[in-house]
Amino acid sequence: LRRNGAHDVDVDLTVLSSTMAYSEVYNMMYVPQDYIGKTIRMRGTCSVYENEENGQVYYACIIQDATACCAQGIEFALDDSYSYPDDYPGMGEDITVVGTFEIYAEDGSLYSRLKMSHMEPNG
To answer: Cys bridge to 63: 14, 18, 44, 91, which one at CB 3.0-4.6 A?
Structure first.
C-alpha cells in the first residue's frame, strides 16, 4: 500500500495521466478479479442513474481518455456517514472517491463497484 493523504490506497488513478487512468479502469472491468479487495482512488465526473423499476439510485465516477472520446466508469456506494440525498454529489459534478473494489450480484447479474466509499476534496 502507498500512503497518499489520510488513507492507504492500492491503486491511485489520480496520479496517472488521463489515458493511463482510463486504461486502468478498462482493466478493472475486463479482469475484475485482479482488483477485488483493493482500495482505489479515482477522480472524475459523477454520473447518476435511477432504475425506474425499483427506484434504486446508482452513482458512478466516470473518467475519459485524453481525447475525451471514450469514457469508463466505476459505480461507487458511499459509506454510512453520508446522508442520501443531501451529501451525495450531483450529476456532472467533479468528484474524487476512494473505496474498496468488489463484485456484487443483483437481479442475476454481476456488477463491480467501490463499496464503503468516501469522497475527498478535489485538488
So the answer is: 44
